[in-house]
Amino acid sequence: MESPRGGSHGEGDVSPPPEAVRMLREMALRDRREGDEPDLPDDQLRSNDQLQEDEIHVHCEIPDGISVSAELLQGVDDYQNNRFFDTFSVQHLAPISLTCLMPPSYPSHHSPYFTLSVHWLDSVKISSLCHMLDSIWAQQPGQEVVFEWVQWLQSPTLSHLGFDDGIVIRQPDDSVTDPVDVRLVREILSVDDVVQRLINYNEEQCQESFLHGLHVCMICFSEYKGNSDAPLMLGYSPRCSFLY
Length: 244
Fold this sequence. Notes:
By secondary structure, this protein is an alpha+beta fold. It has helices at 18-34, 42-47, 123-139, 146-154, 157-160, 191-212; strands spanning 52-58, 66-73, 83-90, 96-102, 113-117, 167-169, 214-216, 223-225, 236-237, 242-243.
């Protein structure tokens, strides 16, 4: 069985969100009712993976960090001249959540059912990611595909979305009528809420990286791990009582 977790692809064992599980099971039930799920012999079923749900947190590669420009509203009136962009940088981008349900006919006859959730993307952009995952499966039908999905979401996603020079988060546009993929799971958030979530996630991950990293004391030149009790992500050298 393929293992999409591991490395920087996944984060431990994560329970799929209830909404994603509900959507996946509805997709599977619909296909059974419509006869899209083939009847397979026992030996073929044994060679396929067992039915399972799996949530994978995929981290986009941003080795040098990335800028985020958010369109915010100034005042209470939603007019174009009341809008402005606030730009900030993050070293850690909140992950893409890919939830999969592998049917008994996967991978020989059927692709995994899946949902995507990305709180810093709008519905149209998430839909484009769903269509790209369909395209990857279409290029290699009958083969395990989840690992390839994860690799694509991790690496070329930002370029595919036109975010090579930074992520842009805009206010919702009610005039846009592009079709929305039914497989996206999107929490309704204001741009301000999305910005705050991105900032909070980045700060949490920076703190985690500091605590698990080694740092050199500039007084005694000894290496120590970060200290969670020290202010401003400083470390503490017990040899010379110096905060580094």
